[in-house]
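Hi there, hope your week has been kind to you so far. Would you mind checking whether the C-alpha cells look sensible for this chain? I owe you a coffee for this, so here goes:
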Amino acid sequence: MGGRGIDGAILIDPLPGDEFALALAEAGLPAVTLGRSPDLPQTPRVDQDFREAMDDVLGHLREQSYERPAFLSIPEHISSTDDMKAAFVELTSDRVVAIARDYSDDAARVSASAALTAERPPDAFICATERQAIGVYRAAADLGLRIPADVGVVSFGESTLARGFKPPVTAICLFPEQSGQELVYLMTRILAGEEVPAVTLVSTELLIRPSSLRPF
C-alpha cells in the first residue's frame, strides 16, 4: 500500500477480516466507512437509523393488516443488514427471518419460496435490497400468490428498478448520494487535520407504493 502513496480511504460496507481495512489499521492511515467496520471500530462512519426505518415499515404493514412479516437476510455480517435484522427482531413478535445465500434475486427466490410453503408462512417480506425483492416477486408468481393481496413486499433501497416493478415496490429510500457526499466531506476534514463526529446519520424515507397497499 505504501507504494501507492494513498493518504486515506473510504470503505463501503466492510466485512469482518477485510484485508484492506486491516492494512489501513496497520499502516496507521485514516479511513471513513459506510456502516460499521468490525476491524476499525473507532473509525468515523456514515450510517442510517435502521431501527427508525424498520419501525416505519412495520407500522405501515400493520396499517395494511399484514400480521406476520418476514425479513429476508443473508449469512454475511454486513453492518447495514445486521442492523436491519436486529431492529426487525426487536420490534416484532410473530416474526420470520429468512436467510438467502446471498443478495441475488435467485437466492431470494429460493428462500422466499421455502418460507411461503412452510406451515405458517409470512404474509409480507421486508427485503434488504431491491434484488431480493425481485426474488420474492418471482417466488410469489411461482406459487400463484398475488402481490399485495396475498403477500406484501417492502425493499430497502430506492431506484428506477423499484419503481419499475409490477406492481411498483414500496421502498425505504437510503439517499446514497447524500451518504457519498458525507463520506467525502468527512475524509476531506480528516486530511485537513480537523475533528469529525464518530457517526454521521443520513435520513431515510418510506415511499409507499402498491406492493404493500393491501386491497380491503
Helices lie at 19-27, 50-63, 79-91, 105-116, 130-142, 160-163, 176-191. Residues 72 and 215 are 24 Å apart (CA to CA). The mean pLDDT is 92.
